Amino acid sequence: MRWRSCLLAGGIVPAIVVAQAAPPKAATIEAPAPPATTAPVAVETFAKLPGMENPKLSPDGTRIAAKMAINGQQVLVVAPLFEDKKASAVRVGASVDINWWRWVGDDWLAVGVGSQDMLYGEEIYITRTLGVKADMTKVNRIDWTHSGVRADDVLWVARDGTPRILLSRQTGIESESQWYPQVAEVDLSTGRTKTVAGSQANVFSWYADGAGTVRMGYRYDDDSRKSALLYRSTNRDAFKVIASARGSQDIVIPLTFRADGTAIATDDSNGRDEVFEVSLPDLKLGKKVYGADGYDVDGVVENATGDDVDGITVTDRFGHIVWLNPALKEIQGSIDKAVGARRARIISWNRSRTRFLVQVGSPSQPGALYFYDLANGTMQRYAWQNDVLKARSLSPVSTIRYKARDGVEVEALLTLPRGHGPKNLPLIVLPHGGPFARDSEDWDWWAQYLAETGYAVVQPNYRGSSGYGTAFAKLGEGQWGLKMQDDLDDAVTHLAKQGIADPKRVCMAGASYGGYAAMRAAQRNGVGAAAQYRCAISYAGVSDLQAMQNYDGKFLYGKTRSDWLKKQAPDYRSVSPRFGAETFSIPILLLHGKEDKRVPVKQSRMIAAALKQAGKPYEYIEQPLGDHHFTRGEDRLEFLKAMGAFLAKYNPA
Fold first, then answer.
1. What pLDDT, in 10s, does the model give residues 460-498?
2. What is the rounded distance in angstroms from the CA atom of residue 434 to the CA atom of residue 548?
3. Which of 128, 258, 294, 337 has the most C-beta neighbours closer than 10 Å?
4. Which residues of 30-41 are buried (b: 16+ CB within 10 A; e: fewer)?
5. Distance (Å, whole) CA 537 – CA 619
């Protein structure tokens, strides 16, 4: 592998590095899966980064842009499809994130980057946009000099082959008006910009149609808590208010502007997010396009011209696309037939929708990325997501439901360790982060590692989780560390009654909000004869809710977000583990990355100090280069080894 460095002086991208390597060889999907094996899997295998993350096919269907794992770190790579050519990669400095990337024509990419910086004595996350030529020979900063804190919201990409985008960005930090983003048309090949919609007071979100017309702006006044939707039909028209409300969630906002003058939007009037036709400009709901039984829809897949929808994205037991386009529905059907018991999801395609990238795998198997070309009707494997496991399946995963103590039904994932009967197993409760998020049946390296070492793993989608409708989400209001915590405890009770779990051998582990929940378990569920847990493990957990609210970052931001947090936890202090350190009664392992930009490392430092002062058993590991999302293989490995040793000491399998 040969590296060529190009230093960019100043700014938030200190270096860009180009790598050249041969692309992976092709394989046909017809090859049989390897036979099942009982050989143990090393911890290093679970710590490996995914082979490819968020791959995107170029509009001409000849190249892939994706994050790939190189030497234990994720690097943005542009690689050819099964041709004897070289691949190019972009790497930025250790303190800079590559957040997203999009093809713009066949030869250019828009790339969003971000970094923590100091602003008026406060740390704040700054975002910028790059125009990157696909062969990595040219990189343009998109008007960084006249950009504010946020400058990376792409509203539209040209479909005529030219490298043009519409970019919404703040224009500075010196005056209040500069904080409100304007929309500019950008030529990525030159970096030149042209304003097409000026900034307006309190409008932070803009929306464009498939032709590149800025059609809507969403206004929200954080002081008055009033919102309004601005609308126009063409770029020549003035914006007019077509809807207003008190609060931030009461206006229907179109997702797609259709060619016939109507729009497509989601609405939760029936108790969960469903997709509807919407008339303009009155925003009246028309025909329901799609709704999932018992679940919210996630979003829509637009058609090739951006003026209608071809499919609906849904997560029920697992994430998939419900295709409305008959041709794409037929293609999905043929792919499903080819992969058998595994699951296949089309994740990217060329402009003519004749070439596709397909992720194939299962909750027990990390799977592989395949390339499907309609011209020859074959699927070729492009890359394994884990080049050690390849097509090997590990511990089985299923979706279960149980009743919480107050009768609320909770859905959860259950992973049972392979090679063990489902009886009297040691158990790990593994709540998700968010907390407005959820787990579904997909490959989970953390859960699979725990199962490989002999534990059953339950991942409850406790009340307040996303995806189950408005009523279930509202059940979480005021219940951080309370009834949301009860839901986790009740999963243990349910599995013990089923005979699956040994109630005397249970620990809780989690990251972010899940780490907070693990702290709360150590604080309130480990006392005396009623002790429910033997130990707890927190990665990047929140220990002080008031300090978290004060943190100037993405996790909690603005008065409206403060209002939201107050709804979730009206009395911060009573449910903040930091202030109950003296009540911790079981050992806890704390880990945190110093480079975490979502939950600052001081959250773990504070609880570690409080536990030390209270004389409570704890271990604390701080990862100097670790972040919130385990983007370095080295950090994953250190974490898994530390967790394995801690569990072996306090709750051996």
1. 999 999 999 999 999 999 998 999 999 999 999 999 999
2. 13
3. 128
4. eeeeeeeeeeeb
5. 9
